[in-house]
Design the sequence.
């Protein structure tokens, strides 16, 4: 019997949440190993030849990129489906997945991290949540040196963060315009489009069903950012999709896994 999939992931990342959600939606028992941002790079490189997460070990292979991983999960375990059966609806769903991944997600990640990087203690608690004491100490000791790398990698300079804030309303406008009569983005049922849009928006919305709650207290800037969109229909849509479709965890050993 093949070993269960093993997911290397960041607890807080929306791209990683996409893959966790897909595994759980398909009721696929799997193992997870949470890595600490910055400390993850060597492990990711050894497994997959690149330094981004998520990475999944599946059937003797290591795959990276959330879209590619979910495509392979869908191929190997098509039921329940995330890709619509109708070709036109499927094309729409995949196009929306791509737009949220490539256009929306980088800006929302930028906004999320911008609320943490100037708050040393909050950033350390968030990045090392769930890690052991040695890792926490190492992160604290290295943070003055790794923070500039985080800034460059994510793009949290003032101009780029400002542009992300300016575009935020337009992202919600597009999301809200795509919601169909049945409450879904592509056809009459939950699909990869809904999963991706809702997961990406968790960067600032953080629904109660998100797999790993942020340590309290949140940075005031993140609280304010969330509050600035809390009255939007798209905000309520994300909460509703999570409440109806996030479901139980199928992480091996999880109390909620079947």
Sequence:
């Amino acid at each position: 019997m093949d070993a269960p999939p093993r997911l290397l992931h960041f607890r807080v990342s929306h791209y990683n949440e996409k893959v966790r959600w897909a595994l759980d939606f398909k009721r696929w028992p799997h193992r997870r190993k949470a890595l600490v941002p910055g400390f993850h790079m060597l492990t990711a490189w050894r497994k997959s030849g690149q330094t981004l997460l998520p990475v999944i070990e599946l059937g003797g292979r290591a795959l990276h990129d959330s879209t590619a991983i979910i495509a392979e999960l869908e191929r190997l375990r098509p039921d329940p489906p995330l890709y619509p059966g109708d070709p036109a609806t499927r094309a729409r769903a995949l196009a929306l997945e791509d737009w949220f991944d490539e256009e929306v997600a980088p800006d929302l990640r930028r906004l999320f991290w911008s609320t943490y990087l100037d708050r040393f203690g909050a950033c350390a608690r968030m990045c090392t949540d769930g890690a052991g004491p040695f890792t926490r100490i190492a992160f604290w000791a290295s943070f003055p040196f790794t923070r500039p790398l985080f800034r460059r990698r994510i793009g949290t300079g003032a101009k780029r963060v400002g542009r992300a804030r300016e575009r935020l309303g337009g992202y919600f406008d597009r999301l809200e315009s795509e919601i169909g009569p049945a409450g879904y983005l592509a056809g009459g049922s939950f699909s990869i489009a809904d999963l991706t849009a809702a997961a990406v928006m968790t960067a600032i919305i953080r629904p109660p069903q998100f797999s790993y709650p942020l340590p309290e207290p949140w940075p005031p800037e993140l609280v304010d950012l969330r509050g600035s969109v809390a009255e939007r229909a798209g905000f309520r849509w994300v909460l509703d999709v999570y409440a109806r479709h996030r479901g139980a965890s199928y992480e091996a050993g999880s109390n909620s896994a079947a």
About this structure: The longest helix spans residues 87-114. The CA atoms of residues 11 and 212 lie 6 Å apart.
